[in-house]
DNA sequence: GAATATTAGTTTGAATTCAAACTAATATTA
DNA sequence: TAATATTAGTTTGAATTCAAACTAATATTC
């Protein structure tokens, strides 16, 4: 019993390393592409922008949750985006604790140029991998995260 | 054709987010466990130590490659480990460019206490996920990384 | 063998992450 | 309603990451 469990855990450790490798490579590829277009736009800033393209007007806490970034990191990144005039911070009318983050026109417009590059990079990574395998894998990763919640917290 | 490709890419983007989430949670769980034992040992330092447990005496470049960390990050982390007397830096006799990194006795000994905790965390994450699925996914991630090499560089 | 290129590691400064303590606003409870 | 707890966001300082320029050592080429 114990042996099998440890074998699986050791394999999961390798999976984690493989994920790090993929993330590192992916970051590098995307960063290179966008730097050519806009030298002032980092991969991390793009992560936030990319989320807002899908969900404009959410608050910082939700950005923090959905990008798995510490909320102080989000404060830092939003400040940087505000400085670049890519987003605006707007207090929630009813609950003034919430700061809603909205894309500016500029923030919306760069989507046309940037998003295709990001998508292209991920398409390259996918190669001819089967769509179902990809889905299955995503489900598995999410399940592993959920399993940790059951213990960790 | 284009549609299908984009659909897969978008899914890969979700996979990447799921991986971030898992890494973040994993980091948090493991950091909490080891902080209780040794408040002076970070997750990142442990990543290096953990590699050395398997491959003692490799040089910094190899550590950099295998952990997907920038070599300047490795310099920083090794310095921190040397300060804590967990590893030693030894110049390669034949090629003095290489600095070989060796665990000290202390570095070896903490394995008994720490490694089980790490393994346990990954075992928790695995839950009752099928071993074959786990293997298959690791292979897939590595393939995605390799696909990027074909383009990115 | 000298000139050149490549490789491993360091240094530097800026960017990002992290945890902990903090402030302000709202929700809950007595 | 007053006291307390919870929530969202900020601030702080330290840790880590990153890219670029740099040094030293070795390999390659002429």
TrEMBL record, chains A, B:
List each coiled-coil range.
1-28
GO terms for biological process? Answer: response to stress
Query: Which SUPFAM superfamilies does the record match to this protein?
Result: Winged helix' DNA-binding domain
Keywords, comma-separated and alphabetical: Coiled coil, DNA-binding, Transcription, Transcription regulation
Does the keyword section mention Membrane? no
Q: Which InterPro entries match?
A: HTH_MarR-typ, MarR/SlyA-like, WH-like_DNA-bd_sf, WH_DNA-bd_sf
Q: Which Gene3D superfamilies match?
A: Winged helix-like DNA-binding domain superfamily/Winged helix DNA-binding domain
Residues annotated as domain HTH marR-type: 8-150
One MF term in GO for this entry?
DNA-binding transcription factor activity
Record's PANTHER family? Answer: TRANSCRIPTIONAL REGULATOR SLYA, TRANSCRIPTIONAL REGULATOR, MARR FAMILY
Q: What is this protein called?
A: MarR family transcriptional regulator
């Amino acid at each position: 019993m114990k042996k099998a469990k440890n074998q699986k855990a050791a394999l999961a450790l390798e999976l984690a390393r493989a994920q790090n490798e993929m993330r590192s490579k992916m970051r590098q590829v995307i960063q290179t592409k966008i730097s050519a277009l806009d030298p002032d736009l980092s991969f991390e800033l793009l992560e936030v922008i990319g989320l807002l393209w899908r969900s404009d007007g959410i608050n910082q806490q939700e950005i923090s949750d959905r990008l798995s970034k510490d909320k102080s990191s989000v404060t830092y990144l939003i400040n940087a985006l505000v400085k670049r005039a890519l987003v605006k911070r707007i207090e929630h009318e009813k609950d003034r604790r919430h700061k809603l983050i909205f894309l500016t026109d500029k923030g919306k417009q760069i989507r046309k140029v940037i998003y295709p590059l990001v998508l292209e990079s991920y398409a390259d990574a996918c190669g001819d991998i089967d769509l179902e395998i990809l889905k299955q894998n995503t489900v598995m990763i999410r399940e592993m995260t959920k399993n940790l919640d059951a213990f960790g917290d």
